[in-house]
Amino acid sequence: MQNLKIVFMGTPEFAACSLKALIDAGYEIPLVITQPDRKGNRNKMILSPVRQLALDCGIETAQPIRLRRDKELIERLRSVSPDMIVVAAFGQILPRSVLEIPRLGCINVHGSLLPDLRGASPMQGAILKGLDESGVTIMRMEEGLDTGDMISKVRCDIRGKDIVEVSQILADAGSKLLIETIPHIADGTAVYEKQDDSLSSYAKMINKKDGMTDFTGSAEEIERMIRAYLDWPTCYSYLEGLQIKFFRAEALMDQQPDGEPGTISETGKDFYIINCGEGKLKVYEQQLQGKKRMGAGDFMRGHRLNKGDRFTVSEQ
């Protein structure tokens, strides 16, 4: 089946893993479509992992701002006449005009066990829900948001993992599943299973403000936020007008708060404990505004913390 012509659409490292698997399997990939490059520090342009891989392999790339409005690119897709379009964390909705192009359909590598956690951030959503298990679903795309028929699944243990770890686990598992599934789609032996909409849930698009915490939630919820948002936007608060980003912590649900949410309950050699709405949060690693990420011990040597000091939701 290596003579199949496949157009790939994706953006982050999760997607790059599937693209590499397709390349290694010998499929013909005439075009890769990914999100536009973005500006980083000092206006340096940052290429998506998918675009970087495509360029390294000499594959043509396109970067539409809005695919559904890019008539020229859609015509280019028609002229390429792919057998299949494979999509993984592309970041844009495909219009019907694109879905109808490949003879074998548009296939999505989705980072959850559908119909649970449809939407833009399924891996973060799994962590926020406190799931011990998630996985990847290969599905046939339709116009609805992740509502198409399921073709294959793989389950993965994500207990206690952060988003960087979960993304790598699911990327590896999903890329292998993709390569196993494509031949069945091509030879007509794939089984398509409709999703039960009554069991569906959605993982919304994440924005910067989602990382803000006032510690009024439970310590367990906040610890999940830290793991889910580790890559971006990170879980953050303010102390004496300076932003603090949290990177590693432990929920102490067996301890009752002894102060208002956000106040320091206790400090130790390499940790400090924050009162939450329920339980307490034991912090081991954070980053002070303008400084490097560091352990709690190093942080407290440069920024003294006392019982009763309070983290707030603003710079005031």
Description:
The protein has 316 residues and is α/β, with parallel strands linked by helices. The chain has a 7-stranded mixed beta sheet. Strands 12, 13, 14, 15, 16 and 17 form a 6-stranded antiparallel beta sheet that branches. A hairpin with a 4-residue loop joins strand 14 and strand 15.
What does the overall shape look like?
elongated
Can you list the strand order of the major beta sheet?
Answer: 5-2-1-6-7-9-10
Q: What is the class of the largest domain in the CATH system?
A: Alpha Beta
Separation, N- and C-terminal Cα atoms: 62 Å
Mean pLDDT: 95
Q: What fraction of the residues are assigned to beta strands by DSSP?
A: 25-35%
CATH superfamily of the largest domain: Formyl transferase, N-terminal domain
CATH third-tier fold name of the largest domain: Rossmann fold
For the largest beta-sheet, the strand count, sense and barrel status come to: 7 strands, mixed
Q: Write the H/E string, N to C.
A: EHEEEHEHEHEEHEEHEHEEEEEEH
Helix content: 25-40%
Number of strands: 17
* Gyration radius, rounded: 22 Å
Q: How many domains, as an integer?
A: 2
Q: Give the name of the CATH architecture of the largest domain.
A: 3-Layer(aba) Sandwich
**Low-confidence region ranges:** none
Q: Which secondary-structure class do the elements indicate?
A: alpha/beta
Number of helices: 8
